[in-house]
User: What shape does this take?
Amino acid sequence: MEMTEVVAALIWDRDRFLICQRPAHKARGLLWEFVGGKVEQGETKEEALRRECREELDIELSVRDVFMDVVHEYPDLTVHLTLFNASVASGEPKLLEHNALAWITPDEIPGYAFCPADEEILKRIIERSRPVAALLYDFDKTLCTKDMQEYTFIPNVGMTAEAFWAESNALAQGSKMDGVLAYMYVMLERAHAAKKSIRREAFVEMGRDLEFFPGVEDWFDRIDRFGASLGLNVEHYIISSGLREIIEGSSIFGAFREVFACEYLYDENDVACWPKNAVNYTTKTQFLFRINKGVLDLSDDKTLNAYTPEDDRPVPFRNMIYIGDGLTDVPCMKLVKVNGGCSIAVYPEGRQDKVRDLLRHDRVNFIEPADYRAGSALEKTVQDILRRVAAQNALTERTKRQLQE
Ligand SMILES: [Mg+2]
Assistant: This one.
């Protein structure tokens, strides 16, 4: 069936957006919709949208990025709708086509009857308007039980874990080299010597063998549901000095909005040839700012370092929870904590001694066993923090509203 290209505008004025009521005598009469229409031949989508807004509202539109696109199938045609974020560049919207106009906030959506095709879009607008709580995890010994190279890679090259890390540390110290770059180098050298593949897929394959602490595999869904019950949108991120490729092959990879970790660059034969990203102790902290500002593309330093007003940052530090196990996590733990978020150090059952000092020296808020099962102390602590995040955000919103009145 032929695909009809349709565009629509999500026209924002601060936290409100414009909706239009269809005239009573037309199809889907008196239902609410977004302004827009068909893309005509020879027009770009943006041009079509600006034309429609002139024709229907008598305004000049400034079109921004795509908010989302949906395909909707009617009995007689298939419509591909692209919805753009936009704002009024000039003019005051007039009722040239519509019965009524309204500027509403996302929580006022349930009070209006919309065209059925807009359902998915409205759901997304509500979701996006919720405050984001971000859980940031270290990986090795935080989610999985030992360093990720120790499950498959190190035995495959015929070494013990002790020997592998000793060689890597000796290289780092002897050459005054970054420890993370040193282990990435030793991995390639040792794989060559043992004639093992260093193709990307070989590393990804190793992700299957990881063992996680109890409850990890269904933790993310559980926390998401709990967050949603508080009106929060929960996002999970990894900040790890391990290999992204191995994490990619693990059963929990899909739970993360983004995984920041070390990674190789691969040549045209898909063979590792250079370290693409190396994530050590203090470089870990840059990812907190990336998440805070919503700049997840590692090659984009410009936006990351540009001035962003506190209010425009998608994930405030006070909405962050950092979970890690050891010294490499300290810079992140401390940074999250001093900025109003919470940090948790986890330890294997019975080994509280490993993290006691982090609590005593004020580097973390809590220490908990690495037990992610429903009803565990860790789950309760995270739930309490999420309750605080929800309350704090609601209060901040109240202040904002009072300032606008
Ligand atoms: Mg760790």
Notes: The CA atoms of residues 37 and 277 lie 45 Å apart.
